[in-house]
Each structure stands twice: as C-alpha cells, then as structure tokens.
Design goal:
Layout: H1 2-23, H2 30-34, E1 40-41, E2 44-47, E3 52-59, E4 62-71, E5 80-87, E6 92-101, E7 106-115, H3 117-120, E8 124-125, E9 128-129, E10 134-143, E11 149-158, H4 162-167, E12 175-182, E13 185-194, E14 198-207, E15 211-220, H5 223-230, E16 235-237, E17 240-248
Antiparallel strand pairs: 1-3, 2-3, 3-4, 4-5, 5-6, 6-7, 7-10, 8-9, 10-11, 11-12, 12-13, 13-14, 14-15, 15-17, 16-17
C-alpha cells in the first residue's frame, strides 16, 4: 500500500508539473538562451514552456534561424527534464533531444546534426580556412555538469579538408569516423583514404576553458607531397607527417 501511494503521489506531482509547463510562457527561457554560449542572440521566444519557439537565432554574426522545441513529459518520472529541438538552415540543421537529470548530467541524443561552412569558416588548418560540412548521425553524448565527457557514440562524416587540401596541392579526401570520450574530453576521430595520395587522420578534442585540440596525421605516398606539407607547419614523425595545435573555440565571431 505504501509503495502504491508513493507511486500515485509521484504521478500526481508529474501531472501538476505538466499542467504548469503547458501554461507557462516560453519567455522564461530568455536568460537561459542568452547564457547558452557566447555570442548567442535571438529576435523573440514564442509559445509556452511546453512548446517553445526561438525566432531569429544567431550565433556571432551567423544567422541560424528558428528553433522549435517540444517538452518531453515522459522524462519527469525518471527525474529529468528534457526537450526535442529542431532547426533547419544552411548554417545549422539539427534534430536533437537534450535532457538534464537531478545529478546535473546532460544527455544529448542526436538524430542528425549538420554544421555548415558558415560556422566552420572561422577556423583554419595550418593557416588555411576550413569549409564544408560536418554531419553527425545517430549519436548519444553524456556530459557531467563540469563538462567532463562520460560517454559518446555516433557516426560522423566531414568534407572540411577539401579547401585546405586543394591549397596544399593534395587531392580532396573526405573523412568518416565517430564520436568518443577521450581523457574526459568529447572527441571526433576521423580518417580518410585516397588511393594515390595516401591516408589522413584528424582528431579534434573539446578541452576545458573553451579550447580545442587538433591533431592531423598524414601518411602520404608521394615524398614531394610530404615535403610540401612541411611548409605549412607539419613535422615528420615516423612514417607520418603531423600537425598539432591547441587553440580557443571561436564562439562569438
């Protein structure tokens, strides 16, 4: 009887919270959206907490567009609060679920996330501007409140090396790989192969303090190509030429 009463109380509490959420205006999210990342802005927030819509979202000078949210009441019984979010634009296209539990653990389920050239062009590889798309599919990420990566899986595709490769005289090599946690950091491990040129691996890790670590490892068949990469800051390491850097994430440009 006691257990049954506890369950009924929990169910009643969940219903009360759902009723509260349905009627609360979405404008209560205003400060949370502003604080989500440096440089984030928007025109307005419409709807309710149950189904909020962020209008005219921008990140730095880049226009992302409208973001539709949908509250997930099923998570309340598990002690978590979460939303589905969708947005579609050439800058950022996303279908993502985000939830936060009582312990502060942030859970992300990424059905598809496409980061376009507009958000990537602020970065460079060996002094050459990056362009192209990064596509993440069927991914799950768990992050502690501190930002430490607890778990990460998912498929990643990227063609971001095409512009730097062309500038360096290399053939275009598209990359495939996966998300992972390495030393508590969310990481991308990507690689690609060209039959004539050779193999390229690219690893990106998001570090604390809004920094990232980039490591490129290339095993090239043509000695002339290896020599060319030295002029762009690559170094010889065994049978490979490598490039490494740690830099700040450019969130507001």
């Amino acid at each position: 009887m006691f257990i049954r009463n506890v369950r009924l109380a929990a169910f009643g509490g969940a219903l009360f919270l759902i009723a509260l959420v349905i009627g609360t205006p979405a404008s209560v999210f205003r400060s949370a959206v502003f604080n989500a990342a440096p440089g984030v802005n928007f025109s307005s927030i419409e709807g309710t907490v149950w189904r909020p819509k962020i209008r005219g979202l921008t990140q730095g000078r880049h226009y992302i567009g409208d973001v539709q949210g949908q509250f997930k009441p099923s998570l309340l019984m598990r002690g978590a609060v979460g939303y589905d979010f969708t947005t579609t634009s050439s800058t950022l296209s996303a279908s993502v679920s985000a939830a936060r539990g009582r312990s502060g653990l942030m859970l992300l389920d990424i059905r598809e996330l496409v980061v376009g050239s507009a958000l990537l062009e602020r970065y460079a590889l060996a002094g050459v501007q990056v362009s192209g798309n990064v596509v993440v599919k069927d991914a799950s990420v768990a992050l502690k409140a501190s930002g430490r990566c607890e778990s990460a899986v998912g498929d990643v595709q990227a063609d971001i090396l095409r512009a730097p490769a062309a500038h360096m005289g290399l053939p275009p090599i598209d990359l495939v790989g996966e998300l992972a946690c390495r030393d508590g950091n969310l990481s991308l491990a990507l690689s690609g192969v060209d039959e004539k040129a050779g193999r390229v691996s690219l690893n990106i890790a998001v570090l604390s303090g809004s920094r990232y670590q980039l490591a490129v490892d290339a095993e090239l068949n043509d000695p002339a190509l290896r020599d060319l990469l030295y002029t762009f800051g690559f170094e010889q390491r065994g049978d490979s030429v490598v490039y490494e850097e740690i830099a700040a994430l450019k969130m507001s440009s």
